[in-house]
Amino acid sequence: MSTSTAQEARPELSKARVRGDHPIRSFLRRFSRNRLAVFGAVVIGLMILIALLAPLIAPYGPNAQDYEASLQNESFRHPMGADLSGRDQLSRIIYGARISVQASLYAVGIALLIGVPVGLLTGYYRGFWDEWVVMRIVDTLQAFPFLILALALAATLGGGFGKAMIAIGIGFSPGFIRIVRAQVMTVSGQEFVQAAKSTGVKDFRILTRHILPNSMAPLLVQTTLAMGSAILAEAALSFLGLGVQPPTPSWGKMLAESKDYLNVAPHLAYWPGLGIFLAVLGFNLMGDGVREALDPRIGHR
Q: pTM to 2 decimals?
């Protein structure tokens, strides 16, 4: 692969090298110009930090009960109030962040494990299996609204956090297959790939060393945005009883438990609702920032 051809295929990296700038530093500099994206990254960073330090910063255990504080509003002892069983809402919100972080990682990880290999192979080899088997299955899955599909899969697999993550991951996988396939079909027609084929380079090496690295930009954007959607989907399944099971704290399950007490204890709903809102907003803002930082058409301002 010639140097000039590689630079044409990766214009952002070549520009960074011309200025003597490292590609990662160049990406971070462009990302930092988007203040909303930085805000989203800070929100996600704080959520991950809270999830990791939950046993150290939570004032009580997530299932510790104080019946004297049942349905108590915000107070010095319970800053976010307490639920019907007297469990501290702040502690359960903190521990619920762990479930949300795990949901974003596990569900999207499953989608990547399915979508990337299938997209690579179908986009590179094409033919009957690509057009009439894999893509027709993808079309069928995408014909269903995502949450309906995840709900049906979770109900089929049975309740529980692990099975809910499998259901959400399968629901995400058609989108990843399409994105990777489209990128592979575009990149595989580039001159440096054709040159590698003509010199006898194995298909596996072409896919992993040439095509996949040059297809990462849209995949990274989709991954970031999907993490926010995974948190929302986990909350929805837990709300319906198909996700996290009691007594494990989950923001979606906390919302479900609060629906019968909205008139007397509205704090039971708005704190977990605010957590879901901020988490999804953070990932969406960060995803937009990643897209802008990786888009060569935006350039350097």
A: 0.87
